[in-house]
Structure formats: C-alpha cells, structure tokens
Write a structure and sequence with these properties.
The protein has about 160 residues and is an alpha+beta fold. The chain has one domain: Gcn5-related N-acetyltransferase (GNAT) (Aminopeptidase, 3-Layer(aba) Sandwich), CATH 3.40.630. A seven-stranded mixed β-sheet has the order 2-3-4-5-6-1-7, with helices on both faces. α1 crosses α2. The longest helix is centred in the C-terminal third of the chain and has 14 residues.
C-alpha cells in the first residue's frame, strides 16, 4: 500500500470563515436523538468510496461509546428527502472542536453542496461553547477537492505527515 499523506487544518477565529451560501433544496438537521447505528450507516455511506475502514471493525459497544458520547454531535444534510452528506463535531478539552467526519454521499458529489455543508459545520463548531479552535484533518485517500474546500472556507494547514 502506498504512503498516505495526512494534512491537519485549523481555524483560530470565526472571522476567518469564508462561507458559501445555502444551495436551494439542501437542508441540514442535527440528529438530536443519538443512535450509534445511524452514525455507523453514515460512516459507511459517505466513507466507502474513500476507504474509510478503520471503524468497520468496531463492536456495537465501541460504536455506541463513540457516537452517543456527550461531546459528539451529528448533522445530516438532506436533498429531496435523501441523505446528501453529514458531519460530526467532537468537542475536545481546551475548547477545541474537531470536525471528526465530513463528507457527501456518492450521488451528491459535484452538486455544489460541499462548500455550504462545511460552512455549516464550521459555524456550528464556533457556536458550541467557548470554542477557541476548530480543526479537521484530511488525507490523500479523500476526494481530491476536500483539501481545496477546507482551505477555501478559511482553514489553514498546520501539520502534514506521511503514514505507510
């Protein structure tokens, strides 16, 4: 397997956000009733094309501990009744909020939804408590436009690493 490049990005002020407008017909809702099975479904739906496999070996108990934790929030984008994408926000100590997972469903890639979904994620991260930093990481296995979307919204690379 070839080496994978990971890029970590951060935003240190909500003023750095360069948002995209909401596309017509796209709605985003928080999954306020937590159910680890839903998070597992979203992870598989969105992550399959990008080889998100690390959590596929997790037990139900591990999924439940992760997805139903108090420091995790899940938001789902819908278009015409179908799941267009999702993101998870995870609150860390020292008022850091991670965009833990973010992506579009395969049928919705290239429709112009990613910029607004990321805008929504960053806005919600800043509004969650006294947030001092929003961060995310992406890798060379993700969609080639992922890093461009993150940077276009105002996130800055602060670390790059290679993994074999």
């Amino acid at each position: 397997m070839p080496a994978v490049t990971l890029q970590y990005l951060e935003m240190l002020s909500p003023d750095d956000l360069r948002g995209k407008p909401q596309p017509m017909g796209l709605t985003i809702m928080e999954a306020q009733v937590k159910d680890y099975r839903f998070n597992r479904f979203l992870y598989q739906l969105v992550g399959e094309p990008w080889q998100w496999t690390d959590k596929l070996v997790h037990t139900d108990e591990q999924w439940q501990s992760y997805a139903e934790a108090k420091n995790l929030r899940t938001f789902v984008a819908y278009h015409r009744g179908s799941i267009a994408g999702y993101y998870e926000l995870r609150q860390h100590p020292e008022n850091n909020v991670e965009i833990a997972y973010f992506g579009l469903s395969p049928k919705f890639i290239g429709k112009g939804f990613g910029g607004y979904l990321l805008t929504h994620a960053i806005e919600n991260a800043w509004c969650w408590g006294p947030t001092k930093r929003v961060w995310v990481y992406t890798c060379s296995l993700d969609h080639p436009n992922a890093i461009h979307n993150y940077q276009a919204r105002g996130l800055q690379i602060y670390k790059t690493e290679e993994r074999v």
